[in-house]
Design a protein that fits this description.
Catalytic activity: Mg(2+)(out) + ATP + H2O = Mg(2+)(in) + ADP + phosphate + H(+)
Oligomer: single chain
Strand content: 15-25%
CATH superfamily of the largest domain: Calcium-transporting ATPase, transmembrane domain
Membrane topology: Multi-pass membrane protein
Function: Mediates magnesium influx to the cytosol.
Largest sheet: 8 strands, mixed
Structural class: alpha/beta
CATH class of the largest domain: Mainly Alpha
Radius of gyration: 37 Å
Number of domains: 5
Shape: elongated
CATH topology of the largest domain: Calcium-transporting ATPase, transmembrane domain
Distance between the termini: 71 Å
Number of helices: 32
Family: Belongs to the cation transport ATPase (P-type) (TC 3.A.3) family. Type IIIB subfamily.
CATH architecture of the largest domain: Up-down Bundle
Protein name: Magnesium-transporting ATPase, P-type 1
């Protein structure tokens, strides 16, 4: 089999793919050592390389596929054009049609991601497989078997609501990954060779999916690159990489350079990437990677992958397992105890099912989802659309928000700041010529032109454009990077210092390109023009660098007088019109921060949410904006600098830094992952471009805007209808409110249910019969659950929403150990009162069950008021009116029901007034002792909920 001779000492070492066409497995570069000695030597070299290689970044380091891709692209960027043909097994004429078809079968269609996602039944199974759902389904089936249809129906409804919401969210998230396949579809102009005896080069248009490695593509303005391409020829080629960087600035590409490893990947001049587009110029390139082997596919391959469950989900599962274990033990003991007394197995099992049902927090899915839905409606009023309800809960736990700069912290349009001559002094002549250039050019109006005119008008300058006629215009293009207008005076004017019919060329553009066409410089103070010297060039560039380092964008301005006949025809014939010009001065611009940004960031900081800026823009501009809005800039870093760090340094730098500039999509992802895995933070990410999709998908809370790219919105959990950070502040408050109310229910349910079941077990062992019949226990359980529906409408104390809230299984266990015994103690006190005061026995079971029914229901209903606040309930803090009304209604029903026909059906009997006097004393003692325990708990652990 033919192999290219790539092992010459004069050739750079290049990793190649070991397959007939695009080689699949990259061979490690061996720093100049030859590799033709066989696999044993290669293995030794690879082993030594692993021993001497630097540490990799875990939890966000480059994957093996990424390392192979980087090695492949850098090697081709460093190689001569002739070698590039050999590496991808192509020729200067291109591939034949037969060869292209064969490679297409070998490599598959050229799409950035596989157009597949999990089947709906797989997602449905995943959504259904939850411990609480399984418990409720099992108990529902048993309830139907034992003819307890109402309770079984309620359980099925709760399961249906929980599974439906979870299935919808996961289905929507996985389907969004298909959007990337449509991102780069377009016809591509390809050079192929045909002919049986004489190979003839022809150009054909093929679908992007049919492009294969080794194809030669021809690109023009507006074209998308169909794969990763090594340029062969280029002519003033300017490319937009906004799909990868998120920044609107363009980059020049050229085929006539050889790069080195020190150049950042996206800055390689002779490599163009799949999904980027041609802005101006033209070029010819060799496709070196397609489909899943491209840079675009590699960095976005993590999109749509299921993330591990968050702390809340893992905590719920742990609670489930604990409750299941307790349930198995307690229910088994109770069933055996009742059976040994009654010798009725059916009755014993039915009672055991009722106890198991009571131990299960049946309302948890409904309470959680109701609270999340309520939060979503509240955020919608603030022009914020919530796609994933769980994101609201995560916002309550969020303690770091990563945000882009442009359009988020800034207003996303530039304003003119100042104008200077070549010595850095303000000079009105500079502003005058800049105004005329902006006023009269009309072929391609840019925001900077509007900024210049707005500055002149708002500051009261009257430059009288009516005294000028526009003769011609040389529009802006990305090769020259400047725009020129030719003006002629209408009348003599002293302030113009020109005569009737005088013509002048005024040019504005990128400073470097303006300086390249200047041969003279004006010294305004002397009113004379001198030759442009190296000293002038150095002084002007230093002045520009000073402004750039302060975050300003700088344009240059030049002019020269023309002969009266210079016009359209002469410009077409004479390419030197923009030459030998006089340098006039500099104009500075700034994208100012939003008025609301500083206040919003301050409010987020007050609530314990730190802001980090992740941008693809320059470091100096990012620092300037951050200083304006109050973000500390003592620790900053750029993407290329991050690339060079080892594991420990990387994570330490990410932890410390607040500003990250010139980041690629994968670097944004790694920063987010590092904060999550090594910093144990709940991270939000606000982005609006395709380049942000990786970080949006990985963040705990992905946030985009309505004007963002469709792909970014697909992967975001929350969509802002306006780019205002104040909306996020409201979202954080709603998230903490939702989280707090959810935790109220969980802690209350665990304490009340465990306490109730332990009390039932003790009573069963003492009396030898079930303290409540299955029907009574289920009725009590239904009434208790109905009373908890109002919890999502409860309020939270101000101190709670001031700090991020995180799930803590250890904290829940500690909370239960401190507060759980008090419930059982109250039940035991009731049991002792019934035994000692009323002298109840096993033959007075109707009276005993009625008393136990009322006390248990009131205890479970009132406990929410002790749990929900750090303060003294009903005295220092009162619950919201829905919770108070719910408590009153359910308590009233519980007290009245023994005196009604329904009570008779349930086997309950009327209770004496003296018993209610005891309950008053009991609950006063319960709340008093509970408040003492609460204060001690807060004193030890510094928190309550």
């Amino acid at each position: 089999m033919w192999l290219p001779n790539i092992f010459s000492a004069n050739h750079p070492k290049i990793p190649y793919y070991n397959s007939p066409f695009i080689h699949q497995n990259l061979v490690h570069k061996l720093n100049g050592q030859t590799q033709h000695n066989g696999p044993k030597i290669n293995a030794v070299f690879r082993f030594l390389q692993r021993l001497t290689s630097g540490k990799k970044i875990d939890g966000g380091s480059r994957t093996e596929e990424e390392e192979k891709l980087y090695s492949w692209l850098y090697a081709l960027a460093q190689s001569e054009k002739d070698l590039v043909y050999e590496y991808v097994r192509s020729t200067e004429r291109g591939l034949s049609f037969a060869e292209a078809d064969r490679r297409l079968k070998e490599t598959g269609p050229n799409i950035p991601l596989e157009n597949t996602f999990p089947k709906w039944w797989n997602l449905l199974w995943s959504a259904s497989f939850h411990p609480f759902n399984i418990i409720l389904l099992f108990l529902s089936v048993i309830s139907y078997i034992t003819s307890d249809s109402p309770n079984g129906c309620i359980m099925l409804i709760l399961v249906f609501i929980s599974v439906s919401l979870r299935f919808y969210q996961e289905y929507s998230s996985s389907k969004a990954a298909m959007k990337l396949a449509e991102f780069v579809r377009c016809p591509i102009k390809v050079q192929r060779c045909a002919g049986r005896f004489v190979q003839t080069e022809i150009q054909v248009k093929v679908d992007q999916k049919q492009v294969v490695p080794g194809d030669i593509v021809i690109v023009e303005p507006g074209d998308l690159f169909p794969g990763d391409v090594r340029l062969l020829e280029s002519k003033h080629l300017v490319v937009s990489q906004s799909s990868l960087t998120g920044e609107s600035t363009t980059t020049e590409k050229t085929a006539y350079v050889r790069e080195d490893n020190s150049t950042p990947l996206l800055d390689l001049k002779n490599i163009c990437f799949m999904g980027t587009s041609v802005v101006s110029g033209s070029g010819t390139g060799l496709v070196i990677s397609t489909g899943l082997k491209t840079y675009l596919s590699t960095i976005f391959s993590k999109i749509g992958k299921k993330r591990p469950p968050d702390d809340f989900e893992k905590g719920i599962r742990h609670i489930s397992y604990v409750l299941i274990s307790v349930m198995l033990v307690v229910v088994t003991v109770i069933v055996l105890s009742v059976y040994l007394t009654s010798h009725d197995l059916s009755k014993s099992i039915l009672f055991g099912i009722s106890v198991a049902s009571a131990l299960t927090p049946q309302m948890l899915p409904l309470i959680v989802n109701t609270g999340l839905a309520k939060g979503a409606l509240a955020m919608a009023k603030d022009r914020c659309i919530v796609k994933s309800l769980t994101a609201i809960r995560d916002m309550g736990s969020m303690d770091i928000i990563c945000i882009d700069k442009t359009g988020t912290l800034t207003v996303n349009f530039s304003t003119m700041v100042n104008y200077f001559d070549s010595w850095g002094s303000p000079n009105e002549t500079v502003l005058h010529f800049a105004f005329l250039n902006a006023y009269f050019q009309n072929q391609n109006k840019y925001p900077l032109d509007d900024a210049i005119m707005a500055y002149a008008y708002t500051n009261g300058y009257k430059f009288k454009p009516s005294k000028w006629n526009k003769i011609d215009e040389i529009p802006f293009d990305f090769t020259r990077r400047r725009v020129s207008v030719i003006l002629e005076t209408k009348m003599s004017a002293k302030d113009e210092q020109m005569s009737i019919g005088d013509r002048v060329l005024i040019t504005k553009g990128a400073l470097e390109d303006i300086l390249s066409i200047c041969s003279f410089i004006e010294r305004v103070d002397e009113g004379s023009i001198f030759a442009f010297t190296k000293e002038d060039y150095r002084r002007i560039t230093e002045l520009s660098e000073k402004f750039s380092n302060e975050g300003y964008r700088v344009l240059g301005l030049a002019m020269k007088q023309l002969l009266p006949q210079v016009g359209v025809s002469s410009m077409i014939c004479d390419e030197d019109v923009e030459s030998s010009m006089v340098f006039v001065g500099l104009i500075s611009f700034f994208d100012p921060p939003k008025d609301s940004a500083k206040e919003a960031l301050w409010r987020l900081a007050e609530k314990g949410v730190k802001a980090k800026v992740l941008t693809g823009d320059t470091l100096s501009l990012a620092i300037r904006i951050c200083k304006e809005v109050g973000i500390k800039t003592t620790h900053v870093i750029t993407g290329p600098d991050l690339e060079s760090l080892d594991t420990d340094s990387f994570h330490e730098t990410v932890k410390r830094s607040t500003v990250f500039a010139r980041l690629t999509p994968t670097q944004k992802l790694r920063v987010v992952q590092s904060l999550q895995t090594m910093g144990d933070h709940v991270v939000g990410f606000l982005g609006d471009g395709v380049n942000d999709s990786l970080a949006l998908d990985a963040a705990n809370v992905g946030i985009s805007v309505d004007s963002g790219a469709s792909m970014a919105k697909d992967f975001a959990n929350i969509i802002l209808l306006e780019k205002d950070l104040n909306v996020l502040v409201a979202g954080v408050e709603q998230g903490r409110l939702t989280f707090g109310n959810t935790m109220k229910y969980i802690k209350m349910s665990v304490i009340a249910n465990l306490g109730s079941i332990i009390s039932l077990l003790i009573a069963t062992l003492i009396f030898g019969f079930e303290p409540l019949t299955p029907m009574q226990l289920l009725t009590q359980n239904i009434l208790y659950n109905l009373g908890q529906i109002a919890i999502p409408w409860d309020k939270m104390e101000d101190v709670y929403v001031q700090t991020p809230q995180r799930w803590s299984l250890k904290g829940l266990a500690t909370f239960t150990l401190w507060n759980g015994p008090l419930c059982s103690a109250s039940d035991i006190a009731t049991l002792l009162f019934l035994l000692l005061y009323y002298k109840v026995s096993r033959f007075d079971f109707e009276f005993f069950r009625s008393a136990w029914f009322v006390e248990g229901l009131l205890m479970q209903t009132l406990i929410i008021h002790l749990i929900r606040t750090e303060k003294i309930p009903f005295v220092q803090e009162v619950a919201s009116w829905p919770v108070v009304c719910s408590t009153v209604v359910i308590s009233t029903i519980g007290i009245v029901i023994p005196y009604t026909t329904i009570g008779n059906v349930l086997g309950l009997t009327a209770l004496p007034l003296s018993y209610f006097g005891f309950l008053v004393v009991l609950f006063l003692g319960y709340f008093s002792l509970g408040q003492i325990i609460k204060k001690c708990y807060i004193l030890v652990f510094k928190t309550w909920l």
